[in-house]
Amino acid sequence: MFDIERWQEIFETISKNKLRTFLTGISVASGIFILVVLLGIGQGMQNGISSEFKGDAENILYIWTGVTTKEHKGLNPGRNIIMRNEDFNYTVAAHEDELEYKSSIYRIWNGIVNFGNESGSYRVEGVMPDYQFLENEAMLQGRYINEQDLKNFEKYVVIGRKVRDDLFKDGKDPIGEYVQISGINFKVIGVFSDPAGEREESRVFLPLGTAQRVFGGYDEIRNLSFTLKEEKNFEAALASSERFSAELEAYLKEKHTIAPDDNSAVSINNSLENAKRFYDLMDMIRFFFWGVGICTIIAGIVGVSNIMLIIVKERTKEIGVRKALGAQPLSIIGMVLHESIFVTTIAGFAGLIFSLALLEFVGPLIETQYISNPSVNFNVAISTVFILIVAGALAGFFPARRAAKIKPIVALRDE
Amino acid sequence: MGSNSLHVLKGINFSVQEGELVSIMGSSGSGKSTLLNILGMLDEADSGSYTLDGLPIKNLNEKIAARYRNKFLGFIFQSFNLISYKSALDNVALPLYYQGVKRSERIDIAMAYLEKVGLAKWSGHLPNELSGGQKQRVAIARALASNPKVLLADEPTGALDTKTSYEVMDLIQGINDEGRTILVVTHEHDIAQMTKRIVNLKDGLIIDDTRVDQIRALSNV
Question: What ipTM goes with this model?
Answer without folding.
Answer: 0.87
